[in-house]
Specification:
Blueprint (H helix, E strand, L loop, with lengths): L1 H21 L2 E4 L4 H14 L3 E7 L5 H14 L2 E6 L6 H4 L5 H19 L4 E3 L13 H7 L5 H4 L4 H10 L25 H16 L5 E6 L2 E6 L4 H4 L2 H13 L4 E4 L15 H7 L5
Parallel strand pairs: 1-2, 1-4, 2-3, 6-7
Antiparallel strand pairs: 5-6
Length: about 280
């Protein structure tokens, strides 16, 4: 146990060393577990030379936007919101397997410009070592844009970040994983504001009903609902099922299906072959 604690302390010290060496850093800040931790450490190390930047668009639910604002205020870090325009990019809207590349490219450009206006030399994101295990074309855009990934460089995993967040008293220590709403739409199906809104409405009611980790995948007339496997029985309780069905139909879905595999990250990537993943861009540097 002591060895594990020493290793984590070493990673934490390395992270602070990396951040201190930037002389000033802007963090792409979504309010998720990783970016919140990074912003908090950056503020602790750099003070006013740390900045959290949140990109706003229809792919980012309003409740998450408000939560990011509240978190930045709680941390004390300077916070700026900027409008993101990935929904104006035809490459992104076409929803190819490398969709995340175009979204991340827009984010990197926004964060870089905003950081430059604030006189900050370095931009950073919350990528961890766990993010290297899946199809992540956004990593390519980050590398091309010169975005630093301090958590990755320090060797921190998602579990490490949660443990260190808990030690700092951050409310995100046990926060469920988040992803942009576009990840709910199958590759090749065009991304539209209407589809994003439909998904958001159903996920909103699922969260209100107490489902901690959930996704609603948009398959045309069908909403495929993912909740944690242990919560499937709760989802099928008559009153819960009736509420979800009502909201899903209001949102435009004809059918609602519960995915018996339960919630899992990157489930839309299951249809991609290894060749398609390579063509979309490497997940690792």
């Amino acid at each position: 146990m002591q060895k594990g604690n020493d290793e984590l302390r070493g990673k934490s010290a390395r992270l602070e060393e990396i951040i201190r060496g930037t002389g000033g850093m802007a963090v792409a800040f979504s309010g998720g577990v990783d970016s919140t931790f990074l912003a908090a450490v950056a503020f602790r190390v750099l003070g006013e030379k740390a900045l959290a930047i949140t990109a706003l668009s229809a792919t980012y639910p309003a409740w998450e936007q408000q939560e990011a604002k509240d978190l930045a205020r709680r941390i004390g870090v300077r916070h700026v919101e900027v409008d993101s325009h990935e929904l104006e990019d035809p490459h992104f809207l076409a929803n190819p397997p490398d969709r995340c590349y175009y979204c991340k490219r827009e984010l990197v450009d926004l964060v870089r410009r905003t950081a430059a206006e604030q006189g900050l030399p370095v931009i950073a994101d919350g990528t961890t070592v766990d993010d290297l295990d899946d199809h992540r074309p956004g990593r390519r855009a980050a590398r091309e844009g010169g975005m630093l990934s301090p958590l990755l460089e320090a060797g921190l995993s998602k579990r490490d970040v949660r443990e260190l967040s808990r030690g700092m008293g951050l409310p995100t220590a046990d926060k469920p994983s988040l992803a942009c709403l576009a990840s709910r739409i199958p590759y090749g199906t065009p991304i539209t504001t209407e589809r994003l809104t439909a998904v958001d409405k159903v996920e909103h009611v699922l969260r209100d009903l107490g489902f901690r980790q959930c996704r609603v995948r948009h398959h045309g007339q069908v909403a495929r609902v993912e909740v944690e496997a242990g919560s499937l029985a709760e989802l099928c309780r008559p009153e819960v099922r009736a509420r979800v069905l009502a909201v899903a139909r209001e949102a435009g879905f004809t059918y609602v299906a519960a995915d018996l595999d339960g919630y899992r990250t990157g489930s839309m990537n299951a249809v991609l072959s290894e060749a398609e993943k390579r063509q979309a861009g490497p997940a690792v540097s």
